[in-house]
Amino acid sequence: MPTTVTAVFQGGVLKPTRKLKLRPNERVKLHIVRQDDRGPAMDIGPLAGAFPALANVGAEQLVAAKRSWRRGVANQLHRLGRKGTSR
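User: That's the sequence. What structure does it adopt?
Assistant: Structure tokens below.
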């Protein structure tokens, strides 16, 4: 399963910012996306590996999409709750 990890390039080497569950000398494939200072709104977690195009989405667009998604989920939960009590 793909994993998204932030890394810092220092001294010619990519250094992950967290521990990786890899065996010694294990080979991996990297998909490098430059990270600018977009702030925490751009933290798309595992979606970055599944959808590399999301790296090009602006922070404002991502915040709006997250807000819309939360509203949609809340609306569906509300509907399910209403259906469950009306029977």
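The longest helix spans residues 59-86.
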